């Protein structure tokens, strides 16, 4: 899949690449040649729309990159390869839905020749709103969760300390010896004097009744 064995030149490319609108995508293409890399080496990328139609040249490399001067990919493709390391990849910094289609990577390094070349199908889609919301929610959780946990732990700790202090206050309370009683002391004195007065009056009454 995506590998073409030829007489003396082997080219490899990803059979399918998925991308999202507005997010950079790399179209990988690697090659292996039995001949030394020279200035004669050429890399050509072509494109065919998903709906079909004619092939369109979108990128050319020979010693230096040569982006297409016209067409739908004008100023939209950048060189991401390194021929010295057998890399002929390109990148689309901001893919669009209309970019869906087949990309073909062709490498020539005379005197090496090739028989077939691999193709890459690009599928560009939009990220859903649900994914964006879930990403934002995840970020919020990662940021605020530690703070919430710290606050909860502090509240629990404060509650425990409050209960301990309350229990100690109930169990350890003792009435001080110097505390003044709520009841007035003159009540007992008044009670004893009243009983003494009643006793004296009763004695006087007895004497008056029996003079002898």
Mind explaining what this structure looks like?
The protein is an alpha+beta fold and 212 residues long. It has two domains: 8-126, Immunoglobulin-like, CATH 2.60.40.10; 127-162. The protein has two helices and twelve strands, in the order ββββββββββββαα. It has helices at 129-171, 186-209, and strands at 3-4, 9-13, 16-20, 25-27, 29-33, 42-49, 56-62, 64-67, 78-79, 90-92, 101-108, 119-125. The strands form three sheets. It has a six-stranded mixed β-sheet with strand order 3-12-11-6-7-8, with no helix packed on it. A three-stranded antiparallel β-sheet has the order 1-2-5, with no helix packed on it. A three-stranded antiparallel β-sheet has the order 4-10-9, with no helix packed on it. Mean pLDDT is 79; it is low at 1-6 and 183-189.
List the helices and strands and how they pair.
Layout: E1 3-4, E2 9-13, E3 16-20, E4 25-27, E5 29-33, E6 42-49, E7 56-62, E8 64-67, E9 78-79, E10 90-92, E11 101-108, E12 119-125, H1 129-171, H2 186-209
Family: Belongs to the myelin P0 protein family.
Pfam family, one: V-set
Main location: membrane
Q: How would a textbook summarize the main sheet?
A: 6 strands, mixed
Structural classification: alpha+beta
How far the N terminus sits from the C terminus, by CA atoms, comes to 149 Å
Question: Strand percentage, roughly?
Answer: 25-35%
Q: What pattern of helices and strands is seen along the backbone?
A: EEEEEEEEEEEEHH
What is the overall number of helices? 2
CATH class of the largest domain: Mainly Beta
What is the CATH homologous superfamily assignment of the largest domain? Immunoglobulins
Number of strands: 12
Q: What is the strand arrangement across the widest sheet?
A: 3-12-11-6-7-8
